[in-house]
Design a protein that fits this description.
Layout (H helix, E strand, L loop, with lengths): L5 E3 L5 H11 L4 E3 L2 E5 L14 E6 L9 H21 L1 H7 L4 E8 L4 E8 L2 E4 L4
């Protein structure tokens, strides 16, 4: 997960409005424990139409013993979080409307991150550490 991420606890209020502006510009934001990013535009242009929203989250489990079932449950929780953000923030709902969402379960060990599982339009994919 990116270190230069703008963080906000709840999807409302003045800080959330700033987060939405940053997200629309392709900058990463963090809300309710979820890292949200839209693909950047080219040479400072706005986010490309139809670009995917990436929702990244840190696993709560030991990555070396993570099971596919645990990973899928964590991604399901992230989906519920994105749904809640949509319901609480009409601006976010408009921004992500019609965009595909890619959910990534990561193990961020401080020097980088390893993707353990992801979910996209094609379904859930478990990678684990192997």
């Amino acid at each position: 997960m990116q270190r230069d991420t703008f963080s906000v606890d709840e999807p409302e209020g003045p800080r959330w409005n700033i987060a939405l502006e940053l997200l629309a510009d392709g900058r990463p934001v963090r809300c309710m424990g979820l890292g949200l990013t839209l693909a950047r535009g080219i040479l400072g242009h706005p986010v490309l139409p139809g670009s995917a929203l990436t929702c990244a989250l840190q696993t709560r489990h030991n990555s070396s013993s993570l099971t596919a079932e645990q990973a899928e449950a964590e991604i399901d929780n992230a989906e519920a979080g994105v749904t809640e953000i949509r319901e609480r923030s009409p601006g976010f709902a408009r921004l992500v409307s019609g965009r595909p969402i890619v959910y990534e379960l990561l193990d961020d060990y401080g020097m980088g991150a390893v993707r353990l599982a992801f979910k996209d339009r094609s379904g859930f994919h478990f990678q684990g550490l192997g």
